Amino acid sequence: MHSAARLDVLGSEQAYLVLAAARRLEAAGHKVVHLEIGEPDMPTPPHVVEAGIRALRDGLTRYALAAGVPELRDAIAHSLAARGVRAAAENVIVAPGAKPMLFAAALALVQPGDDVLTPDPGFPIYESVVRFAGGRPVYYPLDESRAFAPDVVAIAERVTPRTRVIILNLPHNPTGGVATPDDLARLAALAQRHDLWVISDEVYGPIRYDGQYDSIAALPGMAERTFLVDGFSKTYSMTGWRLGYGVMPQWLAEPVTTLMINNVSCTATFVQYAGLAALTGPQDAVRRMVSGLRGKRDRLVRGLEAIEGVTCATPAGAFYCFPDISGILERTGMTCEAFAERLLEDAHVAALAGTAFGPAGRGHLRLCYATDPGQIDLALQRSRSWVGSLTTVAAR
Predict the structure, then answer these.
(1) Running along the chain, 396 residues long, what does each successive block of 10 average in pLDDT?
(2) Are 356 and 248 contacting, i.e. CB atoms less than 8 angstroms apart?
(3) Which of 15, 46, 365, 386 is most exposed, with minimal Cβ within 10 Å?
(4) pLDDT digit string (tens) for 175-224?
């Protein structure tokens, strides 16, 4: 007996594998610092929790419309105005998380044999969904010298007659990079010149430290060729609630709804009402979270830069650092995968090897700083001590 070959093209997320290894260490009595999982450390805002509980008590536990609760779709459409996007409820489809909507976007837009421009490093699920849809991921680089902003020239060089889609993720996982307004305008012009779709993953959209909030879908001529993917997990600390959405041209919404019917039927009704409260209620918790993340970012970057052999760009958004540890690797002869494994085993600090996000991640780690500042300090102290011991051994 064997499974269908299509399952062989699916990758995984290294974060869940490292989390499992960390949990095993904790079960054995060790205290692990978790910097591997990309999850806000603030609780879901109380008014959002209460809205979910109220919906449960009110009996909102039955099937919802496949495209989503109308009130939520309308609220999502209105919320997009903050990033300059004009949309109506008819453009919005709700899903149980952003990942199902990434799959829907790939299945809706990518034909077998199409090339899809994919960031490297980048969220590993992009490559999975492209291959699952029969497409071919074509990596475009994100360079630390440009603060990991998309390089429009490098992207343009990779466009061929087979190119169908560009995937953007801004702010970016794993680097925290963003695009300048000029970058976005040039990317929009490129997409229109070559008749390309853009899948714009904006799940970290509000988590920026420059006060900006934008989208390529807001630019002239881009709403009709952008499939915007977003969710509530990062902004509202609702990772376990599983609530996301897609925004697309109205003509595409009907077939995507059919796809969702065939896949998930609908998104949990009471969860959608919690999401409605998140969007329409007070945003103080989000502002406090972003402000707190800025301080944690600076704390981690300073601490990493103080470790010999490490350099770290300051991320402009999201809640990840992507330090370059190649100085340590050259000195010790380790790969970044071996470094991350031993950092967990020896120092009990859980981090991800940069190669979990593609070939360009070689020589890097991804560290999530959405945690208590004391945990950041403990991770830095343990890492400095452990790296120091590696240096001593290498010197012998």
Answers:
(1) 88 90 97 95 97 98 98 98 97 98 98 98 97 97 92 97 98 97 97 98 97 95 98 97 98 98 97 98 97 98 97 97 97 96 98 97 98 97 95 46
(2) no
(3) 46
(4) 999 999 999 999 999 999 999 999 999 999 999 999 999 999 999 999 99
In terms of CATH architecture, what is 46-280? Answer: 3-Layer(aba) Sandwich (3.40)
* Gap between the Cα atoms of 150 and 169, Å rounded: 9
DSSP 113: T
Q: What is d(CA 70, CA 181) in angstroms, rounded to the nearest whole number?
A: 33
pLDDT tens-digit profile of 170-180? 999 999 999 99
If one counts every other C-beta atom within 10 angstroms of the C-beta of residue 282, the result is 11
The fourth-level CATH superfamily of domain 5-43+284-395 is Aspartate Aminotransferase, domain 1 (3.90.1150.10)
The Cα 149–Cα 188 span in angstroms is: 15
Helix (H, G, I), strand (E, B) or coil at 234: coil
Alpha-carbon span 34 to 81, nearest angstrom: 36
Nearest in space to 72 (alpha carbons), one of 59, 57, 55: 55
Question: Which amino acid, 327?
Answer: G
Q: Pinpoint the residues of the chain covered by CATH 3.90.1150.10.
A: 5-43+284-395
pTM exceeding 0.90:
yes
Residue 336's nearest CA partner among 149, 201, 174, 147 is 174
